[in-house]
Design a protein that fits this description.
The chain has two helices and 56 strands. By secondary structure, the chain is an all-beta fold. It folds into five domains: 229 residues, Immunoglobulin-like, CATH 2.60.40; 143 residues, Sandwich (Immunoglobulin-like), CATH 2.60.40; 170 residues, Immunoglobulin-like (Sandwich); 146 residues, Immunoglobulin-like (Sandwich), CATH 2.60.40; 128 residues, Immunoglobulins (Immunoglobulin-like, Sandwich). The longest helix is centred in the first third of the chain and has 12 residues. The protein is elongated, with a radius of gyration of 42 Å. The chain starts with a helix and ends in a 5-residue tail after the last strand.
Length: 852
């Protein structure tokens, strides 16, 4: 231990930088140097004997890099025939070369290194368990030269570890690799001859020490490394280019006249070997619809002279630039700012202008530089298109049309819903606000409520709720007659802007903007009554506060038929709904109101909307005789199920293994309605066995005659995630994973949906997540409605490589504000594969182990 400490002290005093001595045992090399020798080669081992580097200017340019590897051969006696440490001082000319990085050759971890992935120090591999020290430094040698100094030494082992082998006679191998950058090129017809020299200065010099610390450098031959760079004619010619090469404006409003844009001018793929001095060229454009506002010349590159004349000849910019710098690569010349001065109106023609290079002359000191065909540009201004005009339309929920007919049964007190839709809306109108008046007949109808529709709020511009301002006011008779005045505005973001997306699409789309509930106040026995719901003073506003033109609206018509004299006699109608976490249907725990048609299953043999796990179900039965409520009658309720969901039909349902029957009786109240409520069961084991179709039968005895009605409902998760896929399997770090989520629902009413996606790497670290806020609605009874959403998650640099898993969950809203799952996480035991009956596995991706 003392012996080793003395050796280390000696090495540090000599400014030696210490480290492992990476060599491998084997026969002495045949090339390029036998005996005791230290030399450099241009390539990593296995060495090829290239102890020099010859480059041409067609192969390298300013900024090109190359590596040298230091080799050692130890075959002849020196002192104890054991080498314990070394340092190599490599001196280079600092105006020609620049040191950029280095590495120890026993293991190379840089993917750009020629020896990436190779473990080449067999000596260290076979004699593991020993300690080493190492270091590295650089500095100035003289006014024109710099040096780099790597060094290594063995150190004594810890107690219990094997003895440390030194480098014995007969060993050979590599010490270190060093990367250099080329700083200059020779002139035409010339060459640069430089030398990477092993330095032997007064205080800093190359050393080879035996295991006692004695300097045995003189027993080794030290071979320098010539670097030659010779000028040659470049094989790749430069060319002129404009970027971007293509721009298109229009065709949608507003007009693009007055729009400005920039184009950058480059000399591309210019070899530094040319030694360019000046360039001149012309860039032409069409003046019919384009003008030049300014030309900003790149005086950093063209520091001697730079001019651009765009006033002498209309449609031509005449460039001349000159430099004394060594320019290479894609060389920026100038940035041109254009403005659009004209635009046709459709069906007028589009404007197209090539940006064309001509009279291109590139020169060095002695000759012209050849060029390839230029990369010209194209500017297109499409004719301003007259967009399709949007309009407003009334559509009744119960009929799906612009007309609703009530009666001939008694309907006084009944309610119905009218939806207001914006139709045929193109995105290029950039709509942000709507105002309209909708008339009604107060003697026949009462406005119960006006609720904002989902369309405009779904285009929120701010993350701070609410996304919109909405107002509805009932106004009495006046200029427009009794009406509802409705206003809605998408609120801007924090900077007062509406950046997008805004309502509309291409082709145009429709959106629900309001739902109005009416109550019937009158019905005659001798005539029909009619009311027209008419739009008045409709205004649509764009982002600039301008009015958007509209076409004629589609009004609604309400007809209340006279009470029929053909009485239906004894009737019972069962309907109902589920609380479903409070979404979708109105209810009261004490006196449930009618769940809205058609979602409640109103009418003979109706179908009720979806019931989700553990939801409270309300079933109501209206008992009438000739439309008149029958009070204090006992109504029987029977609930049977579950029946199989798939392949279901009313006439021959197939019971599932968990099938059961429940029976209740309830008495009608003063309105002839009897009702019950119950919560859907959710047993401890296999609760999904209760999923399926359920049949409700109601019966009542009205004066000795039993009448009945039936109703069906579906019991299942609100959402079922059916498939999760990615755009590919393998990803590098810092790539984005594109995840497509396919899901479905049988919900007829609108329910919010928050899809939460998480990726866990192979060590179960969650490194990325994404949310999708959407909704489900509009399914037909007994039919799935399919949906698809796509998200992107970034693979962070610190994610562990290997097989990562993707988790997708469905909530109604964020758990921090009271949200809860609609269904289990996809892949965690659910759903079952229909082919195998086994749970589907979690989706997986591969994160590649190296991307840097």
């Amino acid at each position: 231990m003392k012996y080793t400490s003395k050796l280390l002290a000696t090495l540090l005093t000599a400014l030696m930088l210490i480290g492992v001595f990476p060599v491998f045992a084997g026969p002495p090399p045949n090339v390029p140097h036998n005996g005791n020798a230290v030399w450099m080669e241009k390539t990593f081992i296995p060495h090829t004997g290239l102890d020099y580097a010859n480059f041409t200017t067609d192969e390298v340019t300013v900024g090109s890099k190359f590596n040298v590897t230091v080799f050692v051969n130890f075959t002849q006696d020196v002192s104890t025939n054991l080498i314990g440490a070394f340092q190599t001082v490599i001196v280079y000319r600092n105006d020609t070369l620049n040191f950029t990085r280095y590495g120890w050759t026993e293991k190379v971890t840089d993917p750009s290194s020629p020896s990436y992935g190779q473990a080449i120090s067999q000596w260290r591999k076979n004699c593991g368990g020993w300690k080493v020290t190492r270091a590295f430094s650089k500095g100035g040698w003289d006014a024109n030269h710099e040096y780099v100094l790597p060094g290594e030494s063995w150190a004594a082992p810890d107690i219990g570890e094997p003895a440390n082998p030194k480098m014995y006679k007969g060993s050979n191998g590599t010490l270190v690799w060093i990367e250099f950058e080329i700083l200059k090129l020779p002139g035409k017809g010339l060459e640069i001859n430089e030398l990477l020299e092993f330095g032997f200065g007064a205080t800093i010099k190359c050393k080879m020490l035996d295991d006692a610390g004695a300097d045995v450098s003189g027993s080794f031959n030290w071979y320098n490394f010539p670097v030659n760079i010779k000028w040659s004619m470049p094989s790749v010619l430069p060319y002129m280019a404009v970027t971007p090469t293509s721009r298109t404006y229009g065709p949608f409003p507003p007009s693009v006249v007055g729009t400005t844009f920039t184009e950058d001018i480059y000399i591309k793929e210019l070899s530094g070997a040319w030694g360019i001095v000046n360039a001149s060229f012309k860039l032409s454009f069409v003046t019919t619809f384009l003008g030049v506002l300014s030309v900003a010349l790149d005086i950093t590159n063209w520091n001697v002279a730079a001019t651009a004349d765009y006033t002498t000849t209309p449609g031509v910019i005449d460039f001349y630039v000159e430099t004394n710098k060594a320019l290479a690569g894609d060389v920026h010349v100038a940035t041109v700012t254009f403005n659009i001065t004209a635009q046709n109106t459709y069906p007028g023609s589009d404007f197209v202008s090539p940006l064309t290079f001509s009279d291109v002359v590139l020169k060095d000191h002695t000759l012209l530089i050849g060029t390839r065909a230029p990369l010209n540009g194209t500017i297109t201004v499409l004719a301003l298109m007259t967009l399709p005009l949007p309009y407003l339309e009334v559509k009744f929920v119960d009929t799906g049309t612009n007309e609703i007919v009530l009666g001939p049964e008694p309907v006084i007190g009944d309610t119905f819903k009218a939806e207001v839709w914006i139709k045929n809306l193109h995105f290029a109108w950039y709509l942000i606000g709507i105002q309209y008046r909708l008339t009604y007949c107060p003697s026949l109808l009462q406005v119960v409520s006006v609720i904002e529709g989902p369309y405009l709020p779904s285009h929120n511009q701010t993350n701070v709720p609410p996304p919109t301002w909405f107002s509805a006011i009932l106004l009495p008779d006046g200029t427009y007659g009794p009406h509802v005045l409705v206003g809605e505005l998408i609120l801007p973001n924090g900077t007062g802007q509406w950046p997008a997306p805004l309502p509309g699409a291409d082709p145009p789309e429709d959106g629900l903007i309001a739902t109005i509930t009416y109550k019937v106040l009158d019905q005659q026995c001798d005539r029909n009554l009619t009311c027209s719901l008419q739009f008045k003073q409709t205004k649509l506003i764009d982002v600039n506060g301008k009015k958007i033109p509209t076409t004629a609206p589609v009004n609604g018509t309400v007809k209340v038929l006279t009470i029929s004299m053909y009485w239906p006699g004894r009737l019972i109608d069962v309907y109902g709904g589920a609380v479903n976490r409070g979404y979708g249907v109105p209810y009261s725990h004490d006196t449930p109101s009618a769940f809205p048609a058609p979602y409640g299953g109103q009418g003979p043999e109706g179908n009720m909307d979806l019931v989700i796990p553990q939801s409270v179900v309300y079933l109501l039965a209206d008992v009438t005789y000739n439309y008149w409520p029958v009070q204090s009658k006992d109504v029987g309720f029977e609930i049977e199920g579950p029946y199989e969901q798939e392949g279901w039909n009313k006439t021959s349902p197939v019971p599932r293994r968990s099938w059961y029957v429940r029976k209740y009786a309830a008495r009608t109240n003063e309105t002839g309605t009897a009702w019950i409520k119950f919560q859907m069961p959710w047993p401890c084991e296999n609760p999904e066995d209760l999923f399926g179709k359920y049949k409700v039968t109601v019966t009542v005895d009205i004066c000795g005659v039993v009448v009945n009605d039936t109703l069906w409902f579906d019991y299942y998760y609100l959402v079922e995630i059916t498939k999760v896929t990615t755009n590919k399997y393998c990803y590098w770090h810092c790539e984005d994973v594109e995840i497509t989520i396919e899901f479905r629902s049988k919900a007829q009413q609108r329910y919010p949906l928050l899809l939460a996606v998480v990726i866990q790497d192979e060590l179960e670290t969650h490194f990325g997540y994404a949310y999708v806020e959407t909704y489900v609605a509009g399914a037909e009874f007994c039919h799935w409605k399919e949906y698809t959403e796509t998200v992107a998650i970034h693979v962070v640099k610190w994610a562990f490589a290997g097989v990562a898993k993707i988790f997708v969950s469905a909530f109604d809203m964020d758990p921090t504000v009271g949200g809860a799952p609609w269904c289990p996480t996809y892949g965690l035991g659910w759903p079952l594969d229909p082919q195998t009956g086994e749970p589907v596995p979690l989706p997986e991706i591969g994160i590649m182990p190296y991307s840097y």
